[in-house]
Design a protein that fits this description.
Layout: H1 6-21, H2 28-44, H3 46-57, H4 61-87, E1 90-92, E2 102-109, E3 112-116, H5 124-135, E4 139-143, H6 149-162, E5 168-170, H7 175-182, E6 188-192, H8 195-207, E7 212-215, E8 221-224, H9 230-242, E9 254-258, H10 259-276, H11 289-301, E10 305-308, E11 312-313, E12 318-319, E13 322-325, E14 342-348, H12 351-361, E15 367-371, H13 375-384, E16 389-392, E17 413-414, H14 419-425, E18 427-434
Parallel strand pairs: 3-4, 3-6, 4-5, 6-7, 8-9, 8-15, 9-14, 13-14, 15-16
Antiparallel strand pairs: 1-2, 2-18, 7-17, 10-13, 11-12
Helix pairs in contact: 2-4, 2-6, 3-6, 4-5, 5-14, 9-10
Bound molecules: nicotinamide-adenine-dinucleotide (NAD).
The site of nicotinamide-adenine-dinucleotide (NAD) has 26 residues, from helix 7 and helix 8.
Length: 436
């Protein structure tokens, strides 16, 4: 795949500035029409997407239907149904101090926006933010991940079919192209990726005082209290940890179980893995051979005990579903977000200690999962651990609700999107006061 020159990127940026200045994007009908175009182009390319997502990440059609294409279409339909209501100016009361006058809040587009996509859900996490850019009335340059080149090529085909580049354009590229794009004076940047690159994005944005949303990652804990339904925990770990080979930002990164239930839980989990995910390739593909080597290195440095898994095929980009018991906080597996099918297991003997340790070692995760039959006990923990999002007795699927804001806090990110929150993320709240 050939990448554009800095000059051609500058030309697209200048044309988008001119297009935004033409005010066409202010029209709500224009935005809806373009949502429809995006949906139609997506449907037209679904076969190509199944193939590309299989080749890039080993994703099955069912997975693509649920977590990639289906999720984007769901967000488009939700936005189409609600955009009129979101975009209507909201009258607010006027305090005596500034009466008589009439006040309202209107949502203004930022202008020329930039979306940087990650590799793990390369379609969903690039196009779902784009829905926000469209409903907010912006123009947009989209840079899909360079590590999933087949899917990125189909994203380009979708966007080229749906939109003129003066309005929405794809720029392919990696670090070099991203560095150039980040030097431009965008009006808003939406980044999904790692905390380290998030810092690079924010530093570059500071030069132009460009607002950012950062959707980052981290180590999401899954806590198991003594009264948890262990079969439910096993089922949810199988889904959350091993889907997409663990390459999900809100996957449970580590299992943190009460000492009284740990052994019984691990016996059931290991048995389930042996039944359902027995092969080295059972969980799908990792994105690159380097990621396989990284996981192998972490596992080799771990002082924990491998209960199941640990096999890898670097060339085929495969890593088996792996559970590592007796892991301590200073273990190699606890140093960074794993982003792979390895589940380290730690234990706690009191919920107070568990809360303290999460807050000390990996504070403010993107998601927090607590399993217990006692909802009050579970929500008490949720109240004591700051996190982007949280669930009791479930994992991951909160991200599928357009009614819930999705985003991190602290090192797991800033800002949120999905549904109405995407509209809010991609617009400025403008207060207007009218006298007379
Ligand atoms: P990444 O940070 O490596 O890359 C993201 C983008 O940044 C890529 O497009 C890449 O071209 C660019 N980039 C990489 N290094 C750069 C540099 N030094 N300077 C400028 N640009 C650079 O992320 P990734 O590997 O694609 O995705 C994995 C990460 O994303 C994980 O940390 C995961 O938790 C996170 N993630 C977060 C969410 C979320 O919604 N919060 C969703 C998915 C993934």
């Amino acid at each position: 795949m050939s990448y554009p020159t800095p000059e051609s990127i500058d030309a697209i940026f200048a044309r988008q500035r001119a297009f935004f200045a033409s005010r066409q994007t202010l029209d709500i009908r224009f935005r809806k029409l373009n949502l429809e175009r995006l949906k139609a182009a997506l449907v037209d390319h679904s076969e190509a997407l199944y193939k590309a997502l299989y080749d890039d990440l080993g994703k099955s059609r069912e997975h693509v239907d649920m977590a990639e294409i289906g999720e984007v279409i769901h967000e488009i339909d939700f936005a189409l149904a609600h955009l009129d209501e979101w975009a209507a100016p909201k009258e607010v009361p006027t305090p005596d101090l500034i009466a008589p006058s009439r006040c309202y809040v209107t949502q203004e587009p930022f202008g020329v926006t930039y979306i940087i996509g990650p590799f793990n859900y390369p379609l969903n996490l690039t196009l779902t933010p784009l829905i926000g850019a469209i409903v907010g009335g912006n123009t947009c340059i989209v840079k899909p991940s360079e590590t999933t080149p087949r899917t990125s090529a189909v994203i380009e085909a979708i966007i080229t079919q749906a939109f003129p580049p003066d309005y929405i354009a794809v720029v392919q590229g990696g670090r070099e192209e991203n560095t150039h794009l980040l030097s431009l004076a965008f009006d808003f940047i939406f980044f999904t990726g790692s905390p380290n690159v998030g810092k690079v994005v924010m530093q570059a944005a500071a030069v132009h005082l460009t607002p950012v949303v950062l959707e980052l990652g981290g180590k999401c804990p899954l806590l198991v209290l003594p009264d948890a339904d262990l079969d439910q925990v096993v089922e949810q770990v199988m889904f959350g940890k091993f889907m997409n080979s663990g390459q999900t930002c809100i996957a449970p990164d580590y299992l943190y179980a009460h000492t009284s239930v740990k052994d019984a839980l691990l016996a059931r989990l290991v048995e389930k893995i042996r039944q359902v995910l027995p092969e080295v390739g059972s969980t799908g593909k990792l994105v690159t051979s380097q990621q396989v080597a990284r996981l192998q290195g972490l596992l080799a440095s771990s002082a924990g005990k491998i209960l199941v898994g640990g096999q890898a095929d670097t060339e085929q980009r495969l890593f088996s579903a792996t559970v590592v018991d007796r892991v301590q906080w200073d273990d190699a597996l606890m140093a960074e977000e794993l982003f792979g099918p390895i589940l380290p297991v730690l234990t706690f003997d009191s919920t107070e200690n568990a809360v303290d340790e999460i807050n000390r070692y990996h504070p403010k995760p993107l998601a927090l999962y607590v399993f217990s039959r006692n909802t009050q006990a579970a929500t008490a923990i949720i109240d004591q651990v700051q996190s982007g999002d949280a669930q009791v007795n479930g994992v991951m699927v909160h991200a599928f609700s357009p009614y819930l804001p999705f985003g991190g806090v602290g090192a797991s990110g800033m800002g949120e999107y999905h549904g109405h929150y995407s509209f809010l993320a991609f617009t400025h709240k403008k207060s207007v006061r009218i006298v007379g």
